[in-house]
């Protein structure tokens, strides 16, 4: 029997919505799930409730579950579901070293200065749709949750993607997140900062195609993917 091709499910970052994925979805068909603090202005529940809401959108499966930035927290919490065939984390942004406000502000500013400025109207429009109250609530709820601890229970292959100019998810943090997963690896996108789905949709689409391929390989041993480290997009 031929392998079932997984459906791709996308979870936006803090304050973002479907518009943050529009360029990527032209290259890689996928569904977007909006949650409180991520495209919806509704009250933000505890992280495990957000994960349960995400799992309710997975359908029969299998799925490749993709999170961006703060959305990675929810994806990691939901990824223990057996319908999840692979996980892609784009710039997971809750490094404990950034919990102090001045440190976080500095990392955010250094990253923002490396982003293309054409994104500003698009990002601001999405933030206004979600609203500052929901964004603050999501940050307070998800930031203390240890994504590396969550990933230890995830048996599906996990790909952590970071732009080489991203200071919210630097190389050390990306490696730490990937190392926590039994089948984790890091892929770096040269020249990108934090908003990879918007700025480098072709490279991210290639990562998603690779994740789908890995998820559909029958009998793939975990050891063949663990500690796979690469710069750039996989072939």
Spatial order of the strands in the main sheet? Answer: 2-1-5-6-7-8-9
Tell me the fraction of residues in β-strands, as a range: 15-25%
Specify the biggest β-sheet: 7 strands, parallel
**Number of separate helices:** 10
Q: What is the H-and-E element order?
A: EHEEEHEHEHHHHEHEHHE
Shape: globular
Portion of residues within helices: 25-40%
Radius of gyration: 16 Å
Ends apart, CA distance between termini: 26 Å
- Can you tell me the residue ranges where pLDDT is under 50 for at least 5 consecutive residues? 219-235
- For the secondary structure, the number of strands is 9
Secondary structure layout plus pairing:
Layout: E1 7-11, H1 22-25, E2 31-32, E3 35-36, E4 39-40, H2 47-55, E5 63-68, H3 71-78, E6 84-90, H4 101-112, H5 120-130, H6 132-142, H7 147-151, E7 158-163, H8 171-180, E8 184-189, H9 196-199, H10 201-215, E9 228-231
Parallel strand pairs: 1-2, 1-5, 3-4, 5-6, 6-7, 7-8, 8-9
Characteristic key phrases:
two-stranded parallel sheet, 235 residues, 38% helix, disordered C terminus, 7-stranded parallel sheet, single chain, alpha/beta
Descriptive account of the structure:
The protein has 235 residues and is of the alpha/beta class. The chain is built from ten helices and nine strands. A seven-stranded parallel β-sheet has the order 2-1-5-6-7-8-9, with helices on both faces. Strands 3-4 form a two-stranded parallel ribbon. β5, α3 and β6 form a beta-alpha-beta unit. α2 packs across α3. The protein is globular. It starts with 6 loop residues before the first strand and ends with a strand. The C terminus is likely disordered.
